[in-house]
Specification:
The chain has 13 helices and no strands. By secondary structure, the protein is mostly helical.
Length: 302
Amino acid sequence: MQRLDVSLAPRSLPSPGAMLELLKPITWFPPMWAFLCGAVSSGVSLADRPWLLLAGIVLVGPLVCGGSQVVNDWFDRHVDALNEPDRPIPSGRVPGRWGLYYAIVWSLLALLWSSLLGPWVAAATVLGLFLAWGYSAPPLRFKLNGWYGNLAVGLSYEGLAWVCGAAVLLGGQLPAMPVLLLALFYSLGAHGIMTLNDFKSIDGDRKIGIRSLPAQFGADVAARLACAVMAGAQLAVIGLLLYWDKPLFAAGILLSLALQGLAMRRLLTDPLGLAPWYNGTGVTLYVLGMLLSAVAVSGGVH
């Protein structure tokens, strides 16, 4: 793909509103929810350590997730100048190299903040920031391929945030294996959610060379893949809950999955048109199942 030359705006201070816009607060909910699930799964009462809980939410939401949005906007500024010129960086509201400096300083702040919450929280943050920069920045640019790009996002937004939630409540200790397994499978399932999010930009992705799964295979095949990944992850969780002698919780996840199956059948009749609808129905059931499974292991697994 030919590189487009976009002139960096004249040197001046960025607009405070534009700096906040770069952090995209609306994107913070998924990692904060996963963090909450991790905190619940730790078995420690949330009321016992409210300040640690708040500090962890700030870490995974505004700091790590917000910083990843700044990184993405900086390295996408050339394409955004053509497709979305009103965004903060191409519009000049965040001029010069302020976007890059912002991304670097915000990432360093996240690292410093995580170091105060324990070694395993810091380790998860380092990995999360690596995936965030690798997703957007050359030479890695994971986002150019839907297979590993979506995996990087799922691991960051769901798995690592979940691990951080449990580790923070445990005083910085490594969570137990059941907690880690739940974090892993729900982050793998999130790959499907990311695929559905890519439906809105199929044409643009094809034009600029981003090989998202919908761009590679078309909406119908990508929707089936997304549904299979989400369902497979939850079936694995159900199997684990049965193995851990948590049959009622397993039944709850199974019921949620059955309802998702009905929603998936409708989604597959018109993936492009119904992807936003599914995000409000099927994905909601998915994330509620995350919390239910977290409650299941909060009392320990024998």
